[in-house]
Write a structure and sequence with these properties.
Blueprint (H helix, E strand, L loop, with lengths): L5 E9 L3 H4 L1 H17 L2 E7 L9 E6 L2 H10 L1 H4 L3 E10 L6
Length: 99
C-alpha cells in the first residue's frame, strides 16, 4: 500500500461583488482549471461560501504540487482582473481519503 499523497491547497479570497465583476474573466479562469485537471496537476477546485450565503467569498483548489498551484495563480485571469484580493498556498498531508 502506497503512502497517502501530499497535496497543495490554494485558497483565494474574492472581492465582495465577485458575481457582478467576474464575467469578463470567468471563461479563462474555468478554462485554466480544466486544462490543469486534464494534465493531472489540479485535482479539483471551486468556490467557497459562508454557510447560508449565496455569494462566494473565495475559492479552494487542490493541486499535486506547489509549483502547479503557483502556476495557476500566475496564469489566472481572476488574479490579473482583480477578482482575487489575496491567496495562500498550504501543504496538506493527506492521512485518510481517496487518492
Amino acid at each position: 500500500m502506497s503512502a497517502p499523497p501530499t497535496r497543495y491547497l490554494l485558497n483565494y479570497e474574492y472581492i465582495p461583488d465577485v458575481l457582478e465583476k467576474r464575467g469578463p474573466f470567468r471563461e479563462g479562469h474555468i478554462g485554466l482549471a480544466k486544462d490543469m485537471i486534464e494534465k493531472g496537476t489540479c485535482v479539483s477546485g471551486g468556490p467557497t461560501l459562508v454557510p447560508g450565503e449565496s455569494v462566494p467569498n473565495g475559492a479552494l483548489f487542490i493541486f499535486n504540487s506547489k509549483e502547479a498551484a503557483e502556476d495557476f495563480v500566475k496564469g489566472d485571469p481572476y488574479v490579473e482582473g482583480g477578482i482575487v484580493t489575496s491567496h495562500s498556498i498550504s501543504e496538506w498531508s493527506v492521512v485518510v481519503g481517496n487518492n
